[in-house]
Design a protein that fits this description.
- By secondary structure, this protein is an alpha/beta fold.
- It has a single domain, classed as P-loop containing nucleotide triphosphate hydrolases (Rossmann fold).
- The chain has helices at about 45-55, 75-85, 105-115, 120-130, 145-155, 175-190, and strands spanning about 5-20, 20-30, 35-40, 60-65, 70, 90, 165, 195-200, 210-215.
- A hairpin with a 2-residue loop joins strand 4 (about 60-65) and strand 5.
- The longest helix has 18 residues, at about 175-190.
- The relative contact order is 0.20.
- The chain binds adenosine-5'-diphosphate (ADP) and magnesium ion.
């Protein structure tokens, strides 16, 4: 059983430096199941760096990240990959669908990599949830931008991750599509029980997300 207060993401004393310069600084942050959070801040404030630390792609200079109770930042790389695959789905700004595979095959591959096997029923259900039932056998190049985004969301969810992170998912979209994308992320997260962490400098999304984590650019040396 899970409770709403269960902490899926916990960050303490996190700092990252590149070439001696602090590029990301988060004293503390946590999100429990169902606590969707918008990670906001201007360009250069460290949003992508924080997402990369949370997903275990980079090791922070200082501090700790716990994902579903496990210390991501102190695990060896192979174990981090396992933890990420098991718990986190990623929606990339540039979608990163594999161009030689259909929508269904993209999901099937992602699911096999994450879970060791494909579950065709789950895949078809997800494809339906994002409204792509009629496009399951289409190639990525045949999709509209909005359809491609739906496919990327479905792929991020296909291993039923507890957490879904998205880095600037709406930055290339007009107002109507940006809000539609946010609503789709929220509705699919509700349907699958995933918790969202969405990095954005896009103020259009703020009405949709009561919880925010605001980053400010670490002070620049004069
Ligand atoms: N690999 C890198 N090498 C040098 N500087 C980097 C690197 N990654 C990020 N930075 C710097 O760190 C700061 C924060 O970057 P980033 O996390 O991408 O911010 P955001 O996503 O909020 O725009 C920026 O000043 C950026 O130039
Ligand atoms: Mg960024």
């Amino acid at each position: 059983m899970t409770t709403p207060s269960e902490r899926l993401i916990e960050v303490q004393g996190l700092r990252h430096e590149i070439g001696g310069r602090c590029v990301m600084d988060v004293a503390s942050f946590s999100a429990g199941r169902g606590e969707h959070t918008l990670l906001i801040g201007p360009s250069g404030s460290g949003k992508t760096t924080l997402i990369n630390v949370i997903t275990g792609l980079i090791t922070p200079t200082a501090g700790e990240v716990r994902i579903d109770g496990q210390s991501m930042s102190s695990l060896p790389p192979a174990k981090r990959d396992q933890l990420r695959r098991r718990t986190i789905g990623v929606v990339f700004q540039t979608l990163r669908l594999i161009s030689a595979l259909t929508v269904r095959q993209n999901l099937s591959l992602a699911q096999t990599l994450a879970l060791g096997q494909a579950e065709p029923k789950v895949i078809d259900e997800l494809i339906g949830q994002v409204g792509l039932g009629h496009r399951a056998d289409a190639m990525p190049r045949e999709l509209s931008q909005g359809e491609g985004q739906r496919a990327a969301i479905a792929r991020a969810l296909c291993a039923r991750p507890a957490i879904v992170v998205a880095d600037e998912p709406t930055s290339a979209l007009d107002d109507a599509n940006a809000l539609a994308m946010a609503d789709l992320l929220l509705s699919t997260a509700e349907a699958t029980g995933a918790t969202l962490l969405i990095a954005t400098h896009d103020n259009r999304l703020r009405d949709r997300f009561p919880r925010t984590l605001a980053l400010t650019p670490p002070q620049v040396a004069a």
